[in-house]
């Protein structure tokens, strides 16, 4: 796991090492163990390294034997052992112990077809000096991030937006449609980001940049290619068992110890069971709950799973001031605005685990792959009514996060002018899906290409890498995702219960009665914190924030606070404005400013 950055310049120009160093400094948290730089022709590459595989020999950038290929990579190629055996037979033996070198050698042997052979989570930049091009590649599901920007004399890229801000020739400008999407969807989706001009490399895609700085996308994987299957329970259970065996065995490849985040839910319990079954031993596990709140948590369930499998378990019972003191640092870590409250306890988990380990397993992806969310199985009447009122997505994800009243009262003219942006990513994804897919498959796909890479996986990567910790997500092995998406609806949902196949397959592996416990999710008691005098002070400071004054109608903020105080909603809106105010300070007003993990959020508004 690492941070990567660099650029390809226009003809006749050469990379400036000091600019590469400046970008690397913004990514130091992603790779505290090592740093490397490469300059050749018009290309400059830099990497900050978190050493996990090939500890002594994996220094990057990696170069081919003839010096014509150079690579910087972030992530893991889990099937590197199998690929190296094939590449040796083709005259491309590895010269290091690094799994990342497999990308370099596979490209030397197969060109762009190498991407089809990789299994893992990765983002990379590969300079092919002979062909005169730079290749920016990203894994199939978008587990690892990669951003780029076109500047007057170059195309620059980086693992995180904050590294690109160091190169911008003028103050960053906000993209209004992306900001509105954050407010209404809790994240901004698609290729555009909140910073005008900075874009995401799409998942499952490589961008080919030639000497004239033309960009040609090469899409090497699409979930749309998955065909629905007719398959019975016994066959599906056997296939799932084999897939999980392979994925978990590959995901355990590491030269350093690893641990597990245990939520108490099904997905993390499945990972615990498979790790124990495959002999991982007494690994460290971590869970989180809250002290002094009425909200239920899953500390007891997580501890029960850990005890059952003999793990060295550490439950964290948090107090609310500490949880919300994480807000400035999580905004800084994420780069991108997300109103996912779970970022706050995830940050504390990451800091705790990162003090002892470099790798943790986490259960993200199980709900998307196997239809665990209730939104995948709405009543027919609800689906038809929503589809009629809000066409374009089959009644899926039709409602904005902000109440209509506050959308009208608080959003400024520039945000009101881009109202069509709210549902654009969802409508676009829905329109891509084959008509012969079921409604449930279309909903799964829509989440797989929007909320998963642009929200959930932002948390999983950025919040953990803020503390030099790698998160491994076996449910997002692309073979498992393809399998889950292809299943008949009846193997996903029965009796209004999602992930039916996974539940039946996992039941004998888990502690007795574990599946009978209700799913609570990874909730955060925002309502217990953002109230009373705190809400009043937040409102006062928001009205003075430059970003809030530019984009919102500050005269309506006292009305919003009053509604919050009286229990008439407003919590999401007030929290979203807080996040934006902090983000604006960190990324627009003072790029390069970095909060500590524990701050008073009021000081950063």
TrEMBL record:
Single Gene Ontology MF annotation: asparagine synthase (glutamine-hydrolyzing) activity
Catalytic residues as annotated in Swiss-Prot or TrEMBL: 2 (for gatase activity)
Occurrences of domain Glutamine amidotransferase type-2 (ranges): 2-212
Pathway(s) per entry: Amino-acid biosynthesis; L-asparagine biosynthesis; L-asparagine from L-aspartate (L-Gln route): step 1/1
Entry binding sites for L-glutamine: 99
InterPro entries recorded: Asn_synth_AEB, Asn_synthase, ASN_synthetase/amidase, AsnB_N, GATase_2_dom, Ntn_hydrolases_N, Rossmann-like_a/b/a_fold
Marked site positions, Important for beta-aspartyl-AMP intermediate formation: 364
GO biological process: asparagine biosynthetic process
Reaction catalysis annotation: L-aspartate + L-glutamine + ATP + H2O = L-asparagine + L-glutamate + AMP + diphosphate + H(+)
Gene Ontology cellular-component annotations: cytosol
Record-annotated membrane-spanning stretches: none
Binding site for ATP: 288, 362-363
Gene3D superfamilies: Glutamine Phosphoribosylpyrophosphate, subunit 1, domain 1, HUPs
E.C. no: 6.3.5.4
Class of the enzyme per the UniProt entry, highest EC level: ligase
This protein's UniProt keywords: Amino-acid biosynthesis, Asparagine biosynthesis, ATP-binding, Glutamine amidotransferase, Nucleotide-binding
Pfam family, one: Asn_synthase
Family statement: Belongs to the asparagine synthetase family.
Protein name as catalogued: asparagine synthase (glutamine-hydrolyzing)
């Amino acid at each position: 796991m690492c941070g990567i950055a660099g650029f390809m310049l226009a003809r006749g120009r050469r990379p400036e090492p000091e600019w590469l160093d400046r970008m690397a400094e913004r990514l130091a948290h992603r790779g505290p163990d090592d740093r490397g730089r490469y300059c050749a022709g018009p290309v400059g590459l830099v990497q900050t390294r978190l050493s996990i595989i090939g500890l002594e020999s994996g220094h990057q950038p990696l170069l081919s034997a003839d010096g014509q290929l150079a690579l910087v990579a972030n992530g893991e190629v889990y099937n590197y052992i199998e690929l190296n055996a094939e590449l040796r037979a083709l005259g491309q033996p590895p010269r290091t112990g690094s799994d990342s070198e497999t990308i370099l050698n596979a490209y030397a042997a197969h060109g762009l077809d190498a991407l089809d052979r990789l299994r893992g989570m990765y983002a990379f930049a590969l300079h092919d000096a002979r062909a005169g091009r730079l290749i920016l590649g990203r894994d199939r599901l978008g587990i690892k991030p990669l951003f780029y920007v076109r500047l007057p004399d170059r195309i620059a890229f980086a693992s995180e937006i904050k590294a690109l801000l160091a190169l911008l020739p003028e103050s960053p400008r906000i993209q209004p449609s992306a900001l509105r999407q954050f407010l209404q969807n809790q994240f901004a989706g698609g290729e555009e980001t909140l910073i005008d001009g900075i874009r995401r490399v799409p998942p499952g895609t490589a961008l080919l940049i030639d000497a004239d700085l033309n960009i040609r996308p090469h899409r090497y994987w699409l979930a749309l290619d998955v065909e629905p299957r007719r398959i019975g329970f016994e066959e599906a259970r056997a296939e799932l068992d084999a897939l999980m065996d392979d994925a978990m065995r590959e995901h355990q490849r590491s030269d350093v110890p690893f641990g597990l985040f245990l939520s108490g839910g099904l997905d993390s319990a499945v990972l615990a069971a498979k790790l124990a079954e495959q002999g991982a031993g007494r690994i460290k596990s971590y869970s989180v709950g809250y002290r002094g709140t009425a909200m239920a948590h899953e500390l007891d369930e997580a501890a029960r799973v850990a005890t059952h499998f003999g793990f060295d378990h550490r439950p964290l019972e948090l107090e609310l001031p500490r949880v919300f003191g994480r807000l400035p640092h999580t905004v800084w870590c994420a780069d991108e605005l997300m109103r996912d409250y779970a970022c706050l306890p995830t940050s504390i988990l990451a800091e705790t685990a990162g003090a002892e380990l470099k790798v943790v397993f986490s259960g993200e992806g199980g709900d998307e792959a196997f239809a665990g969310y209730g939104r995948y199985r709405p009543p027919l009447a609800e689906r038809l009514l929503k589809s009629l009122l809000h066409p374009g997505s089959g009644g899926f994800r039709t409602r904005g996060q902000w109440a209509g009243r506050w959308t009208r009262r608080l959003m400024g003219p520039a945000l009101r002018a881009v109202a069509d942006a709210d549902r654009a990513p969802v409508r676009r994804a829905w329109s891509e899906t084959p008509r012969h897919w079921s409604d449930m498959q279309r909903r799964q796909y829509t989440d797989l290409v929007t909320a998963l890479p642009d929200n959930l996986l932002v948390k999983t990567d950025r919040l953990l890498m803020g503390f030099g910790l790698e998160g491994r997500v076996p449910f997002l092995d692309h073979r498992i995702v393809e399998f889950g998406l292809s299943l008949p609806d009846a193997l996903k949902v029965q009796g209004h219960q999602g992930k039916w196949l996974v539940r039946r397959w996992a039941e004998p592996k888990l502690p007795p009665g574990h599946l009978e416990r209700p799913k609570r999710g990874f909730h955060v008691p925002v309502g217990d914190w953002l109230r009373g005098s705190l809400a009043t002070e937040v409102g006062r400071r928001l009205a003075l924030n430059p970003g809030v004054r530019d984009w919102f109608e500050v005269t309506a903020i006292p009305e919003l606070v009053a509604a919050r105080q009286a229990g008439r909603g407003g919590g999401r809106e007030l929290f979203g404005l807080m996040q934006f105010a902090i983000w604006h300070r960190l990324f627009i007003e003072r790029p390069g400013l970095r909060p500590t993990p524990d701050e008073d959020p009021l000081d950063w508004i």
